[in-house]
Design goal:
single chain; MetI-like fold; about 80% helix; about 0% strand
């Protein structure tokens, strides 16, 4: 009984530490106070100001750039990572272990090392840094996560299904599309969402590959804003909306996964 109380208390303390900062941001997004922690009454003015693109043109541009980069990087890395996972899975055991080890190096490697390496690569190739280099950089560090998400689904798949499809007259492309893709689709979705989150949240790699053409993402905007001595109050409703969107997506995905398991 005492052990159960201690375990539940520890769990609640951990949840409070994790979600209290987010809850504080959500609560104070409904007041127009410039300083976080100063409640001046319930108001939607920060949300109204956020939607007014003319007042916060740079912030909205940073949001649009961040979303565009995240979706492009997540989509491309999902395609590349899924193909790479299929190729790795079909290798011999020793080669599979070697390539799998190489795939984990970018994940274990520090973001700042990845950012510096890509920066030096783009400079040495004479590539002008901007939107394209940021997207390429995000694809580079997101793809290994997709590979790790898809590989377990391939290991769970019946290896005879693909051969059976070929024996029944399907072409390799048809067997890939009709047999393998449906089997690994949950892993691809998980990899896409993981890549989307990592790209959306990245700062270290982005700041090294963004160049000096005036391009800003949300992370670089917040960093520059914080260096000025404070954060734009409209970042509070933006953070609250982002949290709600992610929460809704997770609920929908978990419900669909639960229904699929019941079937």
């Amino acid at each position: 009984m005492v052990r159960r109380i201690i375990e539940q208390t520890y769990l609640w303390i951990l949840l409070i530490l994790l979600y209290a900062p987010i809850l504080i941001i959500v609560v104070y997004s409904f007041t127009e106070a410039k300083v976080l922690g100063n409640w001046t009454g319930f108001s939607f003015k920060l949300y109204e100001s956020l939607m007014n693109t003319g007042a916060h043109h740079s912030l909205m541009n940073a949001c649009i750039n961040t979303i565009a980069i995240a979706f492009i990087a997540a989509t491309v890395s999902t395609l590349l990572g899924s193909i790479a996972a299929i190729g790795i899975f079909n290798l011999r055991a020793r080669s599979r272990k070697a390539v799998g080890f190489i795939n984990t190096i970018p994940i274990l490697n520090g973001d700042i090392i990845t950012g510096i390496s890509l920066f030096l690569l783009f400079v040495s190739l004479g590539v002008t840094q901007g939107f394209t280099t940021v997207v390429l950089a995000h694809i580079t560090f997101c793809t290994p996560y997709v590979v790790l998400s898809v590989l377990p689904r391939l290991k769970q798949m019946n290896p005879n299904l693909y051969e059976a499809a070929l024996d029944l007259g399907a072409t390799p492309m048809q067997a890939l599309w009709k047999v393998i893709i449906p089997e690994i689709r949950p892993g691809m979705i998980s990899g896409f969402l993981l890549a989307l989150t990592i790209s959306f949240d990245d700062f270290a790699v982005t700041v090294f590959t963004i160049g000096n053409q005036g391009l800003e993402t949300l992370s670089t905007y917040i960093y520059a804003d914080a260096r000025k001595g404070g954060l734009t109050p409209e970042l509070r409703p933006l953070s609250a909306l982002t949290f709600v969107v992610i929460l809704v997506l997770l609920i929908i995905i978990n419900r669909r996964a639960g229904k699929a398991q019941k079937k």
